[in-house]
What does this fold into?
Amino acid sequence: MQKAGSMMKSKRNGFTLIEALLSLYVSLLVSMLAFVLILSVYHMYTSRQTIQIEVAILQLRQRCALATCHVQEGILIIDMNHETYQIGYDKHRLVKQPGYEIWMENIDGATFQKQEKGIYLTIDQQGNKQTYQIYEWV
It folds into this structure.
């Protein structure tokens, strides 16, 4: 009789199959959520860089449409409202001088070129070069 009573009080030395499957499911769910979170942060960062470039290009186009623009040694020179300033690459940024107004940052290079059709800006960002048209000759 004593043996039957001891069988009712079995010792728990491990996990049951349901507990193991439940913990595996929870860890899988947490890892999937972490992956989605990391992926969304990455997409937010890359879209921020793209938006920054697009805004800077639009601002440059607007300035060149309202002013006289020409290129000298890879630098854009703008004459607007009896004021002359330059936009060029300096320390991984595209800046307006004088005044050091930052137009773009986190770039590896930027040069302006005067071509047959107009003024173009070539941006080097992490080994990827992209060329944008800033102004078109009329």
User: Anything to note?
Assistant: The radius of gyration is 30 Å.
